[in-house]
Amino acid sequence: MLLVIDVGNTNTVLGVYARVEHRPGDDVTTETERYERLAANWRVGSHMNRTVDEYGVIFRNLFSMENIEVSDVHGIVISSVVPPLDSVLRQVCERYFNTKPLFVEPGVKTGMQVLYDNPAEVGADRIVNAVAAFEKYGGPCVVVDFGTATTFDCISKKGEYMGGVICPGIGISADALFQRTARLPRVGSLQSGLYYGYLGLVDGILERLVDEMGEETRVIATGGLGSLIGTASRFIKEVDEFLTLEGLRIIWDRNQTFRREAAPKAAKLAAQVKPLETAAKPWPSPKSPKSR
């Protein structure tokens, strides 16, 4: 099985993909392992004060609830926007799953060109979403991820990551309003104002992006509040709850394929390079004082 982990500022989402059974006629000696069926998924809080063992116990308990054996996990891929948790999760994977995780970071093969002067500035989750959206829905498209922040990511018709927009999430907006006002109750007209006001913000941004990218642009929503806002938007046509998990699965597969293709080429190149044949000459020993 393949464990995929998306670490956000508020929540960490986990998913387990099962292998696809070989079909009749498949060459089992060369057919690559494919993980396509999402067998289970969970959402837990992203707490930076949790220890390696605390996360390990939580993950193992989640697996136990779904009758999944930890020993069945043969690969782990992680995207994270919380750097302090990276080392913790790395140790969790190595200690509790006996597996070295693949982090989505600069140098990892994603199959998508990033049209930024410094691609390392783009959050890993945004690239993961873009990869999955283009693979599933084609381009041009826009991914709206409703998380702690709401991100709008644009992908060209050729599958290039073009950039996007980031704004405060609806949760942050609500918290700021409650903290700055003394007597506003969290009910009624306030909730309506937050919801429809935020919906207007989302559709206003999308209207400008679609005008720029073309009418054929598809808009996909994901994230914790994707279904709440996405179903009421004038521009969002798809709500894909597991888009980020799917992107992690795709990136894992692309990196395994790249390694399998690169290994024979490296071996062939090494065989063509002849070692330098030099006569073995003993290193001259220093003369003793008597022989001088």
The rounded distance between the terminal residues' Cα atoms is 73 Å
What's the helical proportion of residues? 25-40%
The overall pLDDT average reads: 86
Report strand %. Answer: 15-25%
Account of the protein in words:
The chain is an alpha/beta fold and about 290 residues long. Helix content is about 40%, strand content about 20%. It has helices at about 50-65, 85-95, 125-135, 170-180, 190-215, 225-230, 245-270; strands spanning about 1-5, 10-20, 35-45, 75-80, 100-105, 140-145, 150-155, 160-170, 220-225, 240. The strands form two sheets. The protein has a five-stranded mixed β-sheet, sandwiched between helices. A five-stranded mixed β-sheet has the order 8-7-6-9-10, sandwiched between helices. Helix 1 (about 50-65) crosses helix 2 and helix 3 (about 125-135) packs across helix 7 (about 245-270). It starts with a strand and ends in a 20-residue tail after the last helix. The model is unreliable at about 275-285 and about 290 (pLDDT under 50).
Give a quick set of tags describing it.
5-stranded mixed β-sheet, 292 residues, alpha/beta, single chain, globular, 10 strands
Layout of helices and strands, plus pairs?
Elements: E1 2-7, E2 11-19, E3 35-45, H1 52-65, E4 75-80, H2 83-96, E5 102-103, H3 124-137, E6 141-146, E7 149-155, E8 161-168, H4 170-180, H5 189-213, E9 218-223, H6 226-230, E10 238-239, H7 243-272
Parallel strand pairs: 1-4, 4-5, 6-9, 9-10
Antiparallel strand pairs: 1-2, 2-3, 6-7, 7-8
